[in-house]
Amino acid sequence: MDRLENIDHALKILLKETGEQIDIPRTLPLKQQLMRALMNVWQPSLPSSELLHAQDEELSRQREEKGIVEIAEEGIQLWKGDITRLKVDAIVNAANSQMLGCFIPLHSCIDNAIHSAAGIQLRCACNEMMQTQGHEEPTGQAKITPGFNLPARYVIHTVGPIIPNGIPTKEQEEQLASCYRSCLRIAEEHGLKSIAFCCISTGVFRFPQKLAAEIAVKTIKKFSRKHIKTIVFNVFTDTDYDIYQQLI
């Protein structure tokens, strides 16, 4: 089965399982876009091995095409780009309190990007974890799952504070600091040596970028590390890059 046949096979199963009535497009980029959209709306139930095989085959090819980035240097590092390319022990996902990933098709948030690159298995793992917990994830805490189709071995999910008016309170500043401490604590408990942080809460959660970066850097520098040797601040915009470059 060649690549187009494989992705068509995955799409047919996804369309059947989701109940969507959509014609399968002809070109590979549009097929990939549809596959991601259908993965985004997938309800958290374990898919068939047939679907997983086809999905994993396509995601593996996408991973190789994007290119895997390794951070060789120890200490605090700054890297601009797609966090789903990083080959580290864990990447941090800025999740919502349901911890099931973003259900909006093709949304630009990091939660969507990470779940789309990891595969449906990530949502299933998160759902199992949350069903066991029995309640939504509190702000400032964190959970860990495998990375599945990501280059990273694990994903650490944390829920940052939401700032509707863009002006955080002292309590919300402490909640953001708690996100970083919780992620580092889990990484240490699992003996991880490298971790990459996204800019938690600065997207749709509207935490001011500069203040968020100051809290992140201060919290990480104060944290006592035993196993962790490399900490990456992953940014996606020039503005964030300039802010972190001045702080670290």
TrEMBL record:
One of its GO terms (molecular function) is metal ion binding. It catalyses: 4-O-(ADP-D-ribosyl)-L-aspartyl-[protein] + H2O = L-aspartyl-[protein] + ADP-D-ribose + H(+). Residues 63-248 form the Macro domain. SMART domains: A1pp. Pfam families: Macro (PF01661). Keywords: Glycosidase, Hydrolase, Metal-binding, Zinc. CDD domains: Macro_OAADPr_deacetylase. It comes from the Bacteria. Its cofactor is Zn(2+). NCBIfam families: PRK04143.1 (NF003163). PANTHER family: ADP-RIBOSE 1''-PHOSPHATE PHOSPHATASE (PTHR11106:SF121), GANGLIOSIDE INDUCED DIFFERENTIATION ASSOCIATED PROTEIN 2-RELATED (PTHR11106). This is Protein-ADP-ribose hydrolase.
